[in-house]
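Can you give me the bound-state structure? Components:
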Amino acid sequence: MPTTDAPSGAAVVARGLRKTYGGRDVVDGLDLQATAGAVTAVLGPNGAGKTTTVECCEGLRTPDGGTVRVLGLDPVADAVRLRPRVGVMLQDGGLPTGVRAGEMLRHVAAMYAAPRDLGELSARLGLDAFARTTVRRLSGGQRQRLALAAAVVGRPEVVFLDEPSAGLDPQSRHAVWDLVRELRAEGVAVVLTTHLMAEAEDLADRVHVVDHGRVIASGSVPELVASGPGTSPTIRLDARPGLDVDALQEHLGALDGGTWTVAEPSPGEYTVAGRTGPATLAALTAWLADHDVLARRIAVGRRTLEDVFLDLTGRHLR
Amino acid sequence: MSTANPTAAHPGAASPARRVAAQASFETRAILRNGEQLLVTIVVPVLLLVGLVRTSLVELDTAGATRIDFVTPGVLALACVTTAFTSQSIATAFDRRNGVLRLLATTPLGRGGLLAGKILGVLAVEVVQVVVIGGVALALGWQPVLAGLLPAAGLLLLGTAAFTALALLLAGTLRAEGVLAVANLVLVLLVVGGGLIVPPSELPGALAHLAAFLPSGALGEGLRGALLGTGVPALSVVVLVAWTAAFGAGAGRLFRWH
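Here's the bound-state model for the whole set.
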């Protein structure tokens, strides 16, 4: 048997994880690590293999290759010992539709010797308002909060949250994020999948960007944002759509002889990347004035996580 | 191998007995509170019992027994099928589709505890059915052979095993909507031509030979034999055991959690 070579503090370690459905590699040699007392985000576009990866870590799927260790144990072979220590929030909720919300939470709590205080948990996630409503009648956000409560009610050491903020209004989202931060402070290893950049930026200590079943970039948010091309500030410009980006690119290039990339990722929103300096802004606004264009907004800043994500995974729809 | 004792208490988990009891009670309440499930498991059998006893719309050769004595065992067999098969297959299929089975499998309950809880939940609902249907039958003049009560209970357990295994086989392999349709259709077919209430020998054509080898016919014949005092046919027990083994093996191999 392979020994557990996880460094101390590593709560979840996946090495070379592979999972195939119908001859297609959904997860293809994926490496991932999550530490206790930290939030690890698995970020990726739809179909990237995020859910399959966490389901292998939860013991719900048996990998076709590679190893997974959670708290040093095999999620499938050692399931009996792991289940009391691991909390799971599934993407589709996993809530029976015919029971009341409060009854469902009490039922999951009955599986643990020393569950969290249900009153306190219900209050902080705002479950009291719909405790007597059947799950069938709950809104998407209410179901998400109930599923999160069920995931943490057993005081787990590791929590897997599959898209915890999907369908949440801003108030609910912040309540969920506060709870996740508190879990981290208590030393829980939190693994969450998301495609919300804000969620990863605000919460995650470490981000694994996943695409086509592999991790294509890993690091803290500042590390990811600092890496890659264009570490000098990018200019964001909002103006009327359809400006001649090639002409603007030439105009800026003529100024300093450098290479400039001007793009219009969505209509009326432009990015200008190159060796941005004080003179760049003057040249840019002069060009706009020549073309009788009034900018609604000009911002100078480094790349966001979304820029990194789109650079890594491409801009095409899938 | 790890040196830790695998049977050592898991500090975070409730005791296995408590987990299974919680699941059984959860399943039982879910069935008894669901209107459609109550209709199929309680109302329909009681209406059939009263209808078959108080009217002669259905010709039955009772071989000298009173109509109520002859019909009640068959209605109890039907009740067992509605809970163990129809209601359980539909509930499990929708729980599977909604991810409930997967979520509960990640809690300390596990897959084994989930199965044990489901079987105990079915048995609890059957106790309610026997009390209600038996009570109505007694009020209508039912006089069961007392020596047959224990064998009848054993047959109901065997029937529950066979039909729960079939329910899980269906629920674990078909889409939820498909299970809903198939489970209701199969129930109607078994009531009409499966030997539950009308004995196999009174069915037309090939069914007369076939129905005794169906789990429904075996359960119906066995319960009639026990409660009418004519003795439980050995064939009934053999047929139910064989179907339980076949459905159980099929469910064990083919059940998909996703």
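A couple of observations. The longest helix of chain B spans residues 67-97. The radius of gyration of chain B is 19 Å.
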